[in-house]
Specification:
alpha/beta, Rossmann fold, 3 domains, 6-stranded mixed beta sheet, 6-stranded parallel beta sheet, 16 strands, about 25% strand
């Protein structure tokens, strides 16, 4: 089962194997409300269905229908789509309006990909996925007419690359490269503008995150829906258990890896759990004590312990008798999951993944009806005003 970037990259591999062609559609800018954020991608093969989404389903058909015509000249183009209720602007360059009442505008970059002329950004996505190391890419999404730099041109940053490419003159390239380094360090995408002697260039500095990793300690029945749902989120999932009759690959067909590991010292899975989301749910007191005590010594992104609060506190008391210093204690959530009231394995998995997602996004996990701020944090701008895309050209 593949989803997200995994499904897109798999489709690209198939396309290249068959010497096919496709258009890559990428959300590069959002104004107002929109379902997907900048960085969302959809592959539109010449033959066959699309892979990926750039909206909640309202834009995909229109984009796929016209993507090949819009890129017929071979050059990358930006297309704007409005989700407002109506649009009185008769300008032929105005955004297409879908009457959804969301009052947002989505800017989509369309560019051709084939085995003969591959898109370097897809290769970078492969490198990020295979290496597990984040990357960053600066994509030109607007420029003045007759500029030397064109829409769709890019600079890249990744440990595997020796040459990040060139866009403008050396001084401006150095500025873009410095912003890419900040993008990589901060882990957030942003819109930026740069000015040369003739005009302004608008650039989308995108953070390309490595695949999120989930390690589940415990291969019981309730770990099965958790594994399945995590794969729907395109996470890499490893299931670990000390019991051979539980830790079997056929019980977890969706998991990337299933390991049978003795739940006793020494702990040799530090490289696996550091930086990962960790769920401890073995339903074995001795296993949970070993896994929890070991993981608390590392640097996981999140730790969740299944079970009643007093059980976990007893575990912690016993762990502290041997290891008084627990560096990752502040990342421990117990009982694991959001309070949604369910008691089936599927509802428990939903609560666990909901809390993990909230933790990743620094959210409390409450009801959206009580949220006063916007649902999505706007993509940061580095300037007070950027020239609208309708007045920018790829030529």
């Amino acid at each position: 089962m593949l989803s997200g970037i995994s499904a897109l990259l798999d489709a690209v591999r198939t396309l290249e194997r068959d010497n096919g062609q496709a258009v890559l559609a990428t959300v590069v800018k959002v104004e107002g409300s929109a379902y997907r954020r900048p960085g969302a991608r959809m592959l539109i093969p010449l033959y066959g269905g699309t892979v990926g989404t750039i909206s909640g389903g309202c834009l995909e058909s229109e984009v796929a229908k016209k993507a090949w015509w819009l890129t017929d000249g071979g050059e990358a183009v930006i297309r704007r789509y409005s989700t407002a209720t109506h649009d009185d602007d008769d300008d032929q360059d105005a955004a297409l309006t879908f009457g959804l009442g969301c009052n947002g505008t989505v800017h989509v970059l369309l560019e051709r990909h084939s085995a003969e002329k591959p898109l370097a950004v897809l290769e970078l996505l492969r490198q990020v996925r295979e290496s597990g190391q984040a990357g960053a890419v600066a994509t030109v999404i607007g420029s003045y007419r007759n500029a030397r730099v064109r829409v769709g041109e890019r600079l890249f940053l990744h440990p595997s690359l020796t040459d990040s490419g060139r866009l403008l003159d050396p001084a401006l390239d150095a500025e873009v490269h410095a912003d890419l380094q900040r993008t990589l360090t901060d882990g957030h995408s942003s819109l930026r503008s740069y000015r040369d002697a003739r005009g302004e260039i608008e650039v989308f500095c995108e953070y390309l995150a490595p695949q999120r990793r989930l390690v589940i300690f415990g291969a019981g029945h309730d770990a099965q829906p958790l594994t399945h749902m995590a794969k729907l989120l395109d996470w890499h999932v490893t299931v670990v258990d000390g019991r051979a009759h539980f830790a079997r690959a056929e019980r977890f067909p969706d998991a990337d890896t299933v390991l049978q590991v003795n739940a006793r010292p020494p702990y040799e899975l530090r490289a696996l759990t550091d930086g990962a989301m960790v769920a401890i749910m073995s339903h074995s007191y001795s296993q949970d004590r070993h896994w929890l005590g070991s993981v608390l010594q590392g640097t996981p992104a999140y730790i969740g312990q299944l079970g009643p609060r007093d059980r976990t506190e007893r575990l912690l008391d016993e762990i502290r008798q041997h290891s008084p210093h627990l560096p990752a204690l502040e990342r421990l959530h117990y009982p694991i999951g959001l309070d949604i009231g369910g008691d089936t394995p599927e509802s428990v998995a939903t609560a666990i993944l909901a809390e993990m997602t909230a933790a990743i996004n620094l959210r409390a996990g409450g009801m959206l009806k009580h949220r006063q701020a916007a649902i999505h944090t706007p993509t940061p701008l580095d300037c007070s005003e950027i020239e609208p895309a309708t007045r920018l050209s790829a030529s």
